[in-house]
Amino acid sequence: MKKLNVKAFVSIGMLSSIAYILMLLNFPLPPFPNFLMIDFSDIPALIAALIFGPIAGILVELFKNILDYFMTGSATGVPVGHIANFIAGVLFILPTYYVYTKLKSKKGMTVGLIIGTSVMAVSMSLLNYYVFLPAYTLFLNMPAMSAPEMKSTAILFILPFNFIKGLLIALVFMLIFAKMNTWIAKQKALNSIA
């Protein structure tokens, strides 16, 4: 695996800052619970992954969540939501990155984004059922949800929410990618030379 150079670390820092700002510009979707928020902070992480490799994308996801935790805190006192956001972002960008690197075309990017959305949505439903929903109830001292309640929350809310979130991110990213594709390829080539 290629080591990250100083330019990569500076770029990761800048993209993490942009991702953090985008994370602050979150908004709810009316049919879903208020704790499920849409934001476009995975876009800078995906750009980092495309230019500098998957580790860079993971670092952007990590740094934006650390920044957000220290700046805004957490209702639980423990960064359960931030950990969930980090994992969701990684589950979205890694499949997208790997599919795109195999197909290297706009169609490949579209397929990658659809696969990334699907992996994220299904995985986050399972993780919410087994890990995050129980953690929220534990740290918020709320009555524990029954297994059927957690299952219906995961299937009726979290799964469709993450599909919609992934598709919205994919749509916005494809608009950006159509304009920046040549620049991203050039930056990737320059980074591989350095």
TrEMBL record:
<feature type="transmembrane region" description="Helical">
    <location>
        <begin position="112"/>
        <end position="133"/>
    </location>
</feature>
<dbReference type="GO" id="GO:0005886">
    <property type="term" value="C:plasma membrane"/>
</dbReference>
<feature type="transmembrane region" description="Helical">
    <location>
        <begin position="153"/>
        <end position="178"/>
    </location>
</feature>
<comment type="similarity">
    <text>Belongs to the prokaryotic riboflavin transporter (P-RFT) (TC 2.A.87) family.</text>
</comment>
<dbReference type="GO" id="GO:0032217">
    <property type="term" value="F:riboflavin transmembrane transporter activity"/>
</dbReference>
<dbReference type="InterPro" id="IPR025720">
    <property type="entry name" value="RibU"/>
</dbReference>
<dbReference type="Pfam" id="PF12822">
    <property type="entry name" value="ECF_trnsprt"/>
</dbReference>
<keyword id="KW-0812">Transmembrane</keyword>
<feature type="transmembrane region" description="Helical">
    <location>
        <begin position="45"/>
        <end position="63"/>
    </location>
</feature>
<keyword id="KW-1003">Cell membrane</keyword>
<feature type="transmembrane region" description="Helical">
    <location>
        <begin position="83"/>
        <end position="100"/>
    </location>
</feature>
<comment type="function">
    <text>Probably a riboflavin-binding protein that interacts with the energy-coupling factor (ECF) ABC-transporter complex.</text>
</comment>
<feature type="transmembrane region" description="Helical">
    <location>
        <begin position="6"/>
        <end position="25"/>
    </location>
</feature>
<protein>
    <recommendedName>
        <fullName>Riboflavin transporter</fullName>
    </recommendedName>
</protein>
<keyword id="KW-1133">Transmembrane helix</keyword>
<keyword id="KW-0472">Membrane</keyword>
<keyword id="KW-0813">Transport</keyword>
<dbReference type="InterPro" id="IPR024529">
    <property type="entry name" value="ECF_trnsprt_substrate-spec"/>
</dbReference>
